[in-house]
Amino acid sequence: MWAYLFGVVLVLMTPTFYNYYISLNEYGFGAAQYELTFGWYGAVFSDSLLTTAFAWTFMLAVINLVITVPMGLIAAKQFKRRPQQAWLVALMLLPLFVPGDIFASALLVFFKTLNGGFAELAKLTGFTFMKGWFKLGVTTAVIGLVVYTLPYIFIVILITLGRYHSEQTEAARACGASAWRAFWDVEFPQVKAGVFASCAFVMILTFNEYTRTAILKGGFDTFTTVLVSQMLNTGMSEQSYAMGGIVSSIAIAVIGAVLIVTMLRSGQMERRRRGEEALAPA
């Protein structure tokens, strides 16, 4: 089963390996001659456009992670507590059914209208601090990313919560634990795999997202917008392929670590179960 899973991951990563192949060529993409070099990876950090775009994207990913994962966890816990609330699942999954360009365009119109309304309100009341609250920038980009990634996080954590029995929390509360201690000491250890997977998922989705970020980001560049702009205009530079290789390596390391840790933990739990069955009286 694990060999099959790793095989599927390798197949999905095939385009990434081709990116590595290009980034290690001294003469870049499409060259008739191939000469192995790691020099482009060192040159990445001298490209201010790429490094600045990477820094902006990383900041958006961290902010998105801090906001989205707790929201997804709370929503999943709410549904787990009252499974008859089918409307909650429909509400959380609704953004998945709206095409990204349509959703981003709608948010763009909404934010521009809202920003204009606050600007008029600031003019009428004299509260100038309200002017520019929803001007395109980090805030609007983060809102778009939260709406985009939250349904995925909700599903991942909800699946993990499926094997957790709420009676354990009730037992902890009956023993005198506060709501926070019951969550942290009893519930979180059993769902932390889903929470950590959600964190990795948020980072990967943020780095891969283009449409919503490009429309809502305002005047700064993100990693994907720089790459798409290069492809449509001048063509991707060798440093861009190298930066793509670095980002892909980080994603592969995170996904690989999750798979390996899960495999080891599953093996340990299976051996423990077999040992308990062997020691149990007939």
General description of the model:
By secondary structure, the chain is mostly helical. It has 2 domains: 14-47 and 237-260, no CATH class; 49-223, MetI-like (MetI-like fold, Orthogonal Bundle), CATH 1.10.3720.10. Helix content is 76%, strand content 0%. The protein is built from 12 helices and no strands. The protein has helices at 2-12, 14-23, 39-43, 48-81, 86-93, 100-125, 138-161, 167-174, 179-208, 211-216, 223-232, 238-279. Helix 2 crosses helix 12 and helix 9 (179-208) runs antiparallel to helix 12. The two termini are 31 Å apart. The mean pLDDT is 83.
Q: How many discrete domains?
A: 2
The average pLDDT score comes to 83
Please state roughly what percent of the residues sit in beta strands, choosing from under 5%, 5-15%, 15-25%, 25-35%, 35-45% or over 45%: under 5%
CATH topology of the largest domain: MetI-like fold
Tell me the major beta sheet. Answer: none
Low-confidence region ranges? none
Radius of gyration: 23 Å
CATH level 4 superfamily of the largest domain: MetI-like
Domain ABC transmembrane type-1: 50-265
Protein name: ABC transporter permease
Pfam family, one: BPD_transp_1
GO biological process, one term: transmembrane transport
